[in-house]
Structure to design on (489 residues):
């Protein structure tokens, strides 16, 4: 969950309905098996050590192990922003109705609603706040989770999350996002999708695109996120030349944030300390608001987020990624290979448009719902304005070359919509209805001519393609202007 310093954050991902990547298989998942709901955490691989593990064994109705966890109760941290800074509406409790073991090796965090319509739920945090890789090493934080098994109108307002916050947040409550946040798993409204994000820098805007952060997303395959257990992990790697955070779903690395994506001070401020782990199910707030809001009268209480285990592993070096629990059904596509990190070509590839140079938004070959206006951004010219849900623009024959695939997308955007209004800028190839290969979320930037460049990861692309930019939001209001965009490695 992201916080805001006012923790306005969740405008944040707000946006996202996007979707969702292509299926891939972890190379480490050798055998595909059907796993019980209380599967054991994977064995510790050679070169790694276990620094934290809770498999939630205990009697049905018992609370969490308070040697490992502490309950966060109420509607805020003492002295912190109301509603935990995100606009959520529940009251967190330590009651067994909201947080308890199920007697079968799982923790259940269950939202409840009383006769007066008031919501309660649960939020637990590790007592430890020192989770950080050693110098030159790695840290992997993983959990096996089934999201609340509820979809459609009955899921309005549900917001389960498995995430980490920088230790300096404890006792301050107002220093977000500079102290860092790692959203390993977020979900809203029962959508079959995981969102993963790193938050850092300053808000709004800043080098990490706050309040949205630097995010990625992936659909759950085999079983839906709500219909079965999946593993969610982040691997913080200090053994590489450029430090990075890698996010995984069922062993597939679908999103990576590198220190090179921001200035050194921002990265240092977000990573020069330990982190603590949080499990919670919020109800309502800025993220659900981007997808229709809730909870409302149609929302069904009583659907828990079920956590099988939480594991933290540490490595003193090397490059081996520890195995994770394999998917419960066979994959349908071959493993993906991380794209090489060679720089973009120094000369434009042949073709209609160069993917690695700015493409002016107003130069589209087709569109719906857009308009042009004079921009005050550096360089002058025009931008596309009035972009909202359902609008799109087409750019034909964009040449990505035949060498290293493009894995980055950057857009120059501005937004002056009212608070709570946000949406996605999505990239699709060759068809306006194809699955997005990447996207980023946009909220207000301070004005319709207050420009910022927002980065995003995309699925690797080579060759020549027609590029569609589509705009998706949970609100009808316009939320973004676009001046230019480009791709990179």
């Amino acid at each position: 969950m992201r916080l805001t310093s006012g923790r306005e954050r969740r405008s944040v991902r707000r946006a996202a309905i996007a979707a969702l990547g292509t299926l891939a298989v972890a190379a480490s998942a050798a055998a595909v098996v059907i796993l019980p709901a209380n599967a054991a955490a994977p064995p510790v691989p050679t070169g790694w050590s276990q620094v934290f593990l809770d498999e939630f064994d205990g009697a049905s109705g018992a609370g969490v192990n308070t040697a490992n966890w502490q309950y966060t109760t109420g509607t805020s941290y003492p002295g912190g922003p109301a509603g935990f800074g995100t606009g959520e509406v529940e009251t967190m409790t330590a009651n067994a109705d909201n947080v308890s073991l199920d007697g079968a090796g799982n923790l259940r965090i269950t939202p409840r609603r009383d006769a007066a319509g008031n919501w309660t739920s649960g939020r637990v945090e590790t007592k430890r706040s020192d989770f950080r890789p050693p110098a030159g090493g790695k840290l992997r934080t993983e959990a096996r989770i089934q999201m609340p098994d509820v979809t459609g109108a009955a899921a309005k307002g549900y917001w389960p999350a498995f995430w980490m916050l920088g230790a300096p947040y404890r006792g301050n409550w107002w220093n977000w996002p500079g102290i860092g946040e790692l959203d390993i798993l977020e979900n809203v409204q029962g959508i079959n999708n995981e969102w993963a994000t790193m938050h850092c820098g300053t808000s709004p805007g800043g080098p990490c695109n706050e309040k949205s952060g630097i995010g990625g997303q992936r659909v759950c395959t085999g079983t839906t996120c709500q219909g079965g257990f999946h593993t969610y992990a982040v691997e913080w790697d200090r053994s590489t030349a450029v430090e990075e955070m890698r996010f995984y779903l069922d062993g597939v690395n679908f999103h990576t944030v590198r220190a090179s994506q921001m200035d050194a001070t921002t990265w240092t401020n977000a990573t020069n300390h330990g982190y603590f782990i949080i499990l919670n199910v919020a109800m309502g707030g800025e993220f659900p608001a981007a997808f229709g809001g809730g909870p409302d009268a149609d929302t069904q209480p009583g659907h828990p987020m079920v956590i099988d285990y939480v594991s933290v592993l540490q490595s003193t070096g090397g490059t081996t990624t520890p195995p994770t629990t394999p998917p419960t059904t066979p994959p349908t596509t071959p493993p993906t290979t991380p794209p090489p990190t060679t720089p973009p070509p120094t000369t434009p590839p042949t073709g209609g448009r160069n993917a690695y140079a700015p493409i002016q938004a107003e130069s589209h070959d087709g569109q719906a719902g857009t308009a042009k206006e004079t921009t005050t951004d550096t360089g002058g010219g025009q931008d596309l304005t009035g972009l909202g849900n359902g609008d799109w623009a087409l750019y034909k024959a964009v040449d990505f070359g035949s060498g290293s695939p493009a894995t980055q997308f950057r857009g120059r955007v501005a937004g002056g919509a009212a608070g709570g209004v946000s949406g996605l800028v999505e990239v699709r190839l060759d068809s306006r209805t194809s699955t997005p290969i990447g996207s980023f979320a946009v909220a207000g930037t301070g004005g319709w001519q207050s420009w910022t460049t927002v980065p995003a990861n995309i699925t690797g692309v080579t060759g020549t393609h027609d590029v569609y930019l589509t705009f998706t939001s949970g609100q009808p209001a316009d939320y973004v202007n676009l001046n230019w965009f480009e791709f990179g490695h």
